[in-house]
Amino acid sequence: xxxxxxxxxxxxxxxxxxxxxxxxxxxxxxxxxxxxxxxxxxxxxxxxxxxxxxxxxxxxxxxxxxxxxxxxxxxxxxxxxxxxxxxxxxxxxxxxxxxxxxxxxxxxxxxxxxxxxxxxxxxxxxxxxxxxxxxxxxxxxxxxxxxxxxxxxxxxxxxxxxxxxxxxxxxxxxxxxxxxxxxxxxxxxxxxxxxxxxxxxxxxxxxxxxxxxxxxx
Length: 217
Description:
Elements lengths: L14 E3 L1 H10 L3 E2 L1 E4 L2 E3 L7 E8 L2 E3 L7 E8 L12 E8 L12 E8 L12 E8 L12 E8 L42 H10 L7
Parallel strand pairs: 1-3, 2-5, 3-5, 4-6, 5-7, 7-8, 8-9, 9-10, 10-11
């Protein structure tokens, strides 16, 4: 899978910024570009409609903040906590979450392209009704996550825990789950979401039980 990674200036050329810049941008309606944010702590703030381009977030904490209808292009979140944040109806392209926590974060109705999520805890997150294209998720927890009614194209799962994840009405065709954990998935009654998905023998035996098939030794 061809994944376009964030295009960023070297850290030495990024301008240090603080939360005031984000707050002010909502008033001035200006794009936030070429900045680096370090160690921000924001709680229940509204940053909706903000446009970020060529920005790096390092060790920031955004607890239950709103980023509805925001735009993120060429963005890296590293060692950040975005738990409970609302990214609904947002746009992501060439973005990455590395070693982040996003428990209960919401991305419903978003357009998400060229995104890498690596070494993150995204349990209970919600991607319902989103468009997901060229996505790589690696060594990440997405337990009890909602990924239903999504349009997917080239989504790569690598060592992801998807225990009790909800894929209702999301086609998994062409996806390889053989090195991930997919127990307890929520699917349609006929399990049609699984058509064309790749699994290992153990996973196949577990999934067969959903169809009432008994596999004998």
